[in-house]
Amino acid sequence: MEQDIDFKTFKRVVSLSMEDMCRDLFLENPRGIKIKKEGVAVKNLVKIFNAALAISNEKGFAAMSMRDLSAEAGLSMGALYTYFSSKDELLDMITHQGRMVTARVLLDQVDGIDNPRARLKRAIEAHLFLSEIMQPWFYFSYMETKNLSKTQHRKAIETELFTEKIFVDIISSGCEQGLFREVDVDLAGAALKALLQDWYLKRWKYAKRDVTVENYSVFITNLMESYLFL
Amino acid sequence: MEQDIDFKTFKRVVSLSMEDMCRDLFLENPRGIKIKKEGVAVKNLVKIFNAALAISNEKGFAAMSMRDLSAEAGLSMGALYTYFSSKDELLDMITHQGRMVTARVLLDQVDGIDNPRARLKRAIEAHLFLSEIMQPWFYFSYMETKNLSKTQHRKAIETELFTEKIFVDIISSGCEQGLFREVDVDLAGAALKALLQDWYLKRWKYAKRDVTVENYSVFITNLMESYLFL
DNA sequence: GTCTATATCTGGATAGAC
DNA sequence: GTCTATCCAGATATAGAC
């Protein structure tokens, strides 16, 4: 379990197609979605989510009209409303599903790795690789957080702090074991989080400079280690 | 000129009141604004900008209606439209004015400091202190970039790259002088930029943890130096 | 310069045919 | 399950009184 992982392997192991995620959503949500047949529902959810993410990441969720969405997804407005009861509910659905996957995958990836240095490295890779695969989703969640309903907004903040805590805990245990020097673990964790987020927030920049996700992963790991070891 | 600067001194020296900025805008823009008397125009521009930043940073510019703005600013809708010709123009005005100030202050602050280490420290402080004073403005600009008109959007990206280049150039000169070790200067610059941006993007987090801007400045400087010196 | 009142249009949501 | 047609609340923007 402690062995290294590369992006290709990661992608294969976690297998997070849009279809898988939409199927999960459908199975979790027997009430909200009026459609009965799984095949039809999943196929259309994929179309809806892809369209919503594309338009919203271009000009913002609030600026996306239901007519825009209808055109891009290739479904009539009437059909759209059999999958959610309001535009706000669609927003909540998308972010909710993203959060579930993130938490599950991150915890799963660091599980069983005890050495803090190895654990930190893997956590960084897992976060970056995941956000690479699900970039539109991560970008969307970041930008639309403040537009969520109050309960979903609270959950979004909880998840932000939860994933940050994963990093803080790793750094703390490294300090306790005398492996890392004594640092302000909260600040270190916050900084690491910011660096990981930059990967999906400024993808255009890194793409233009031909920085791959593996390059970036190595760089961030080195940066953090040079601070923690000194 | 090379001496240290603290937040209080910085605040006094750059003196960036909302009023100063609105006066600049008024004097630069004799065409767009229909109001003739400087006193009246500046007073109302301050009210409009404060209101627009407050509402937009709460729920997004697109979700802010002109009625919201009218109520919060204490001006009728008719009066609002004597200061700009459309909601989109208001968006452009706000971001434009913020960019002008940022570029001017940053260049001004590092001017005359030759030693790369001192220059880097000062650039970090200047960016953080500036974004502390103008937090609503910085947050707004970041979140609303993708909603700008095409020309203003292009300018926003140019400014992002311009300020990043200030950091990259400092790091490069440090490497050339053999003061810093050889690193990927573009990645280092991008990372630093991300860390500086986190300060105004997650202010709620740092405020809750009682991290001051000076604390954060010292932390970021140490983090970067531990990577650059090693 | 500022306000009120209003013209005009767009967008979310739904009813009912197929 | 999906589509078309439509309702109507609420949005931007302006005209004209004061």
In CATH, what is the class of the largest domain in chain A? Mainly Alpha
- Outline type of chain A: elongated
**Number of self-contained structural domains of chain A:** 2
End-to-end C-alpha gap of chain A: 28 Å
Second CATH tier, the architecture of the largest domain in chain A? Orthogonal Bundle
| Largest inter-chain contact set | A-B, 33 and 31 residues
Can you write the helix and strand succession of chain A as a string?
A: HHHHHHHHHHHH
Q: From the alpha carbons, calculate the radius of gyration of chain A and give it in angstroms.
A: 19 Å
Mean pLDDT of chain A: 96
CATH topology name of the largest domain in chain A, in short, is: Tetracycline Repressor, domain 2
What fraction of residues of chain A sit in β-strands? under 5%
Specify the oligomeric state: homodimer
Low-confidence stretches of chain A: none
What does this structure look like?
Two copies of one chain form a homodimer. The longest helix of chain A is centred in the C-terminal third of the chain and has 27 residues, at 150-176. Chain A is mostly helical and 230 residues long. In chain A, helix 6 (87-110) packs antiparallel against helix 7 (116-133) and helix 7 (116-133) packs antiparallel against helix 9. The first copy, chain A, is built from twelve helices and no strands. Chain A has two domains: 14-85, Homeodomain-like (Arc Repressor Mutant, subunit A); 88-230, Tetracycline Repressor, domain 2. The radius of gyration of chain A is 19 Å and the shape is elongated. At the A-B interface, helix 3, helix 10 and helix 12 of A face helix 10 and helix 12 of B. The structure holds a DNA duplex (18 and 18 nucleotides).
